[in-house]
Design goal:
By secondary structure, the chain is of the alpha/beta class. The chain has helices at about 30-45, 65-70, 75-80, 85-90, 110-115, 140-150, 150-160, 165-175, 185-195, 200-215, 220-235, 235-250, and strands spanning about 5-10, 10-20, 50-55, 60, 95-100, 105, 120, 125-130, 165, 180.
Length: about 260
């Protein structure tokens, strides 16, 4: 059945967009299933990290335009109802998210990739904004996410010229953390996710939240937010274990609590 394939390797959940015939083009059904799958992972406390990837020859080719027509005349209401929950789930879930881009990430598919915490890519991967080619503006968070990842000038270049960039250039520009040979992408993504899963999950996710808040904050306000977060988390199981391990000169054994 088309939708999102769920798998598990140790403490890492792997979610695969599984509509390869359309290069995993986004539909309300596909993104609804993605939001549900992320919710299931968040409810399972044994899941400590998440990998999101695509089946077949591409990660996600963007919006399925026929399905998009079905959202009705009120596009904003339709997108917020059917698309936003999946993007929100990726940005706020209680575990780190590694996005493994295989093949193309185009338009909204590139937006989806950027919604995770770290992107790794197959050597054959490519990224393209595509929107202005069809007379539209970037959407699904692209104008917020892309400049913060690669800077204003490069973001405008990708959005205005619609030139695809390959995995090597994406890594050079800071969009991608690491590039793997195609056959090694899954293993590379899982290794990174396993490393994150072995960490103090609660502190990692709180760090993500602080970084997002800093985009709208001044130095003093963010200084205070960091200390407030530190005060809340310093007596967590992982924080206590981290300090004990440091004193005892051993590797910490974090549990995500």
């Amino acid at each position: 059945m088309a939708g999102v394939k769920r798998e598990r390797e140790g403490a890492v959940a792997i979610l695969t967009l599984d509509e390869p015939a359309s290069l995993n083009a986004m539909t309300p059904d596909l993104l609804g299933d993605l939001a549900r799958a992320i919710g299931e992972c968040s409810a399972d406390l044994t899941v400590r990290a998440l990998v999101l990837t695509g089946a077949g020859r591409g990660f996600c080719s963007g919006q399925n335009l026929k399905a998009f027509q079905s959202l009705g005349e009120d596009i904003e209401a339709g997108v917020m109802r059917h698309y936003w929950p999946a993007f929100e789930a990726l940005r706020t879930c209680r575990m780190p998210v590694v996005v493994a881009v295989n093949g193309v990430a185009a338009g909204g598919g590139m937006s989806l990739a950027m919604a995770g915490d770290m992107i790794v890519a197959a050597r054959s991967a490519s990224f393209i904004q595509v929107f202005s080619r069809i007379g539209l503006v970037p959407d699904l968070g692209s104008t917020w996410l892309l400049p913060r990842l690669i800077g204003r000038q490069r973001a405008l270049e990708l959005m205005l010229l619609n030139e695809p960039i390959d995995a090597a250039r994406a890594m050079e520009w800071g969009l991608v953390r690491e590039v793997f040979d195609d056959a090694a992408l899954r293993a590379g993504a899982l290794a990174l996710a396993a490393r994150l899963a072995a960490g103090p999950t609660r502190a990692l996710v709180e760090t993500r939240r602080l970084i997002e808040q800093s985009e709208f904050s001044d130095y003093l306000s963010q200084f205070r937010r960091e200390i407030q977060a530190q005060a809340q988390i310093r007596n967590s199981d992982d924080a206590l274990e981290g300090r004990r391990a440091f004193i005892e000169k051993r590797q910490a054994a974090f549990t995500g609590r």
